[in-house]
Amino acid sequence: MSFRGSFRGGAAGGAARGGFDGKMSVMTQVRKEKEVETARLHAKTFQAWMNAHLRKRDLRIEDLANDCKDGIMLINLLEIITNTSCPSKYTTSPKLPAHYIANVTIFLEYLNQFVTVNVNPPDIVDGNIKIILSVIWRVILFFQVQSKHDQTPENAKQPAARANREAKAKLMAWVSEKTGLQITDCENSFGDGVAFCRLIQAYDASLIPDHMIQPGNPLHNLSMAFDIAESLGVPKLLDPLDLTNPNPECRPDEQCIMTYLSEYPKLFLAKPATAYQTPLGADAFRPDPNSVISSLASININIPASALSSFSPSGNSSSSAPAPAYPGTIPGSIPSGSQSPVPQGGRYTFNPLVPGAAPDQSSLPPGTAPTLKPNFGPGGIPTGSSIPGSNTPGGSVPGSYGIGGGAAPAT
Asked: Phi/psi of residue 110, each to 5°?
């Protein structure tokens, strides 16, 4: 994507078009070149961030300076990220410069309801890229980089430099906590890509095994981390090639890196409590135990009366032959030894997780087969069941079906 059009206005734009006239000092020339490159990288990152939100309305910015001058994109962006509607009526199809000024004025008034910015509408209408970038950064800083509890009226009025410093410190501390790395700054702590890989591992260690991280290959690490993060919903706001530029002056600065990094806390907050994210290309999830319990609780296991013909109504065995296998049960759910005769006062327990009370045969009419439903112990935690002859203490076999004697455990 080209960002050449974003630098048509302002001093930086003039320098980019016409070059230097040879009358300025070398230091001034170097500073000007750095300003132009910094503006280019800011525009590239901020534009990608804006498009990640604007696509919710099928809108897209191609030229940041030119596409913001009528105020339409800016108003839509603010409506999306604040989940509010612009309080003032604006021109949806502006044609005249007066429409542009009116729309940008409405945008700035709308924005100042949330965070204070001091900008003249003509600067945005004229395509002053430096001013436009400063406004967009203020929006990113307040609505994304800063945490929700920091978005207070007091913080909305604080100087951008102070807000930037405080937000950066909190973000670096968060990354350090998640990755276990010593993150000291933006420019030097992320260039090798390892920190980004560790962030994804903190989210789901199976996504990037340790052997896939190559400390001596920054481009590999960055490309891998950004691709995987994008598959998880983190927009790719940085370019690995920019981060690995041999010239340090041409690499993304802290504003660019903070914009991208601030997407990760949202990823962690949105992580499902029971979902198990699998590597790319796989499509599997670990079952939710609560869902399994809920499903099993609705299972009825019907046992034909003929299957119980070898037992007396009192629960004593009337035959020396072993009890038949029970049809209709889950394969593999009946443990070894379950065909043993029912002991005196026995109950039939059919619970895939926690053996509980099953209907006593003695309470059923002759020739009637019981309908058995799973019952669960306290907290739904498997507690085992009693099986005569078990080699565990008290005959307890955790998590198994069983034919237990005496009363079922209390639920």
From this structure: -60, -45
Q: What's the pLDDT tens digit per position in 108-126?
A: 999 999 998 999 999 999 9
- Residues 311 and 305: their CA atoms lie apart, in Å, by 10
DSSP helix/strand/coil, 402: strand
pLDDT for the residue 186: 86
DSSP H or E segment with residue 372: strand 371-372
H or E segment to which residue 396 belongs? strand 396-397
Residue spans of alpha helices (H) in 6-71: 10-18, 26-54, 64-68
> Averaged over 119-140, what is the pLDDT?
96
pLDDT higher at 401 or 393:
393
Contact in structure between 198 and 188 (CB atoms under 8 Å):
no
E strands of 256-356, at which residues?
301-302
The DSSP call for residue 270 is T
Between 312 and 326, the more confident residue is 312
pTM of this structure: 0.61
Q: Which residues contact 26 (CB under 8 A, 6 or more apart)?
A: none
Q: Residue 90 in contact with residue 106, Cβ under 8 Å?
A: yes
The first and second tokens of residue 411, run together, are 């639920």
Query: Strand 396-397 vs strand 385-386: parallel, antiparallel, or unpaired?
Result: antiparallel
Phi-psi region of 127 (alpha: psi -120 to 50; beta: other; left: phi over 0): left
Rounded mean pLDDT, 293-303:
49
Strands 301-302 and 385-386: unpaired
